[in-house]
Design goal:
about 230 residues; alpha/beta; Histidine-containing Protein, Chain: A; 4 strands; about 60% helix; rod-shaped; disordered C terminus
Length: about 230
Amino acid sequence: MSGVLRVVLFASLCSVLTSIVAAQTPARRAAEPQQPTVSAPADLSPAPAQVSVHPVARDEQIRARLQRVLLATDSFKDPQVRVEDGVVFLHGKVDSAELKNWAGDLARNTQDVVAVANQMEVIEPPVRDFGPAWGGLLILCRDFIRSLPTLGFGLLILVLSVGAGMLATRGARAFLRRRISAKLLRSVIACGVGVLVFLLGTYIVLRVCGLTQLALAGCGKKQIPL
């Protein structure tokens, strides 16, 4: 009986210990922190070399920008810009090949331009026109022909004034020969009378030709020393 009792007691003790251990195991597992679940890495594409912040320029924006620049330079005649799918077509007239190349380089350096078709026309330098010079020469000839009568009359008066001056000089010498004994003084006075007569004839010539005001202005103008 004592052996059976011992076996029963040992079995009861084992069952109690087993129940205690089973009750403590879930509590320990609940107290331990749970590890985060690690997912498999996703497939990533290679990073681009450059990321554009601004949106891609549209054809109309490119056309408007180039049109404004060409008009602002004021070096192109009737510039026209057309853009299709990034291809720029330039039309207009320029005075030199350098300006045409400059417009092409400007379009190529514009954002989002794929290609440039520079169809600007270089204007050849015009042939020298001598029409205005010939017209001015004809006007001078016509004015000279119209003024021939006036010039002839003026020259006639000038010749007469020279002759009158010489006659006045001789007359003055003859008049002063009996009154002034000094030959030098007599010659000076006679020459002065002749010069006065000549100046009077010159004034008449200028008056006839309409140059009296010009002569008076030239005589009255002050000379400013430099």
